[in-house]
Design a protein that fits this description.
Length: 275
């Protein structure tokens, strides 16, 4: 199986440094566009994505520090306040299996307090208010998904990513060197069935009211199409690019043009729920 096991955690330079980096990038790119187009930076800033590119979105993924209390949501709120003004959407990652103190991924009460705090902080931002996207794991059962879906509806979450990596090891993995026995979050092809099931379930539980970003084991146009039919408005790929490089994106998009046969992606989103 083509898969990746990740146990690196969430190593980074911290929200403040990352915030300074994306702010600098945003204004630098707008300044370059201003020189080319003869428009003021202020006028460009009012109408451009936070990625500073009209056809791209910049998402910022926020999670917890290992030093914070398991039930605390302050890291998410601090990350939103530091980075949200320069993100097209902010991901609240409550499901990273390599961060052991994320209680929100398993405790519904903590998840609710986290979502409530983040949405409240976003709604208090003075100017631009980024969409909030909740990233969930693939290991929840149906009852847990039902509760998550209801919280997402109640607090008007703007999107759901289904799913993160898994600590489980699905049956049928081709693993002659027993690499799968190592610890860490598993992604790639063995995750696809679990991620697809979660996407399909969350679409039905939310009645299609919340956009879902499908993620997990997508490596072909056929895979992407399956996620659309399950309810994904968009998809993300990670592990397949590790194996095949960044050209994988164009390969999947070109394949989708052939598979859709003139239909739009939006025409087939949630098709499984209607059949």
């Amino acid at each position: 199986s083509r898969a990746v096991i990740n146990r690196m955690g969430l190593n980074n330079d911290g929200a403040q440094v990352c915030g300074d980096r994306i702010k600098s990038r945003f204004w630098r790119m707008l300044a370059a566009q201003s020189r080319r187009q003869g428009e003021t930076v202020a006028s460009l800033a009012a109408g451009v994505n936070r990625s500073a590119r009209g056809d791209r979105l910049l998402g910022v993924n926020v999670s917890k520090s290992k030093a914070s209390a398991p039930e605390s949501y302050s890291d998410y709120v601090d990350g939103l306040n530091e980075l949200g003004a320069y993100a097209d959407y902010v991901v609240i990652n409550v499901s990273c299996p390599n961060v052991k103190n994320i209680r929100a991924g398993a405790d519904v009460a903590v998840l609710e307090s986290t979502i409530a705090a983040v949405v409240r902080a976003r709604n208090q931002m003075p100017d631009y208010r980024p969409p909030i996207v909740l990233k969930i794991g693939p290991d929840n059962d149906h009852d847990q998904r039902r509760l998550i879906a209801q919280l997402a509806i109640d607090y008007r979450v703007d999107g759901i990513i289904a799913t993160n990596t898994t600590l489980s090891r699905p049956h049928g993995m081709d693993d002659p060197n027993e690499v799968a026995l190592q610890t860490g979050g598993l992604s790639g092809e063995p995750l696809r069935k679990m991620a697809l099931e979660t996407t399909r379930d969350m679409y039905r539980l939310t009645k299609g009211r919340i956009p879902i970003i499908g993620c997990g084991g997508i490596s072909t146009a056929e895979d992407a199409l399956q996620f659309a039919k399950a309810g994904a408005s968009m998809v993300q790929i990670y592990s397949s690019m590790t194996y095949d490089g960044p050209g994988k994106v164009c390969e999947i998009k070109d394949g989708l043009v052939d598979l859709l046969k003139g239909r739009k992606w939006s025409d087939i989103v949630g098709e499984d729920a209607r059949s």
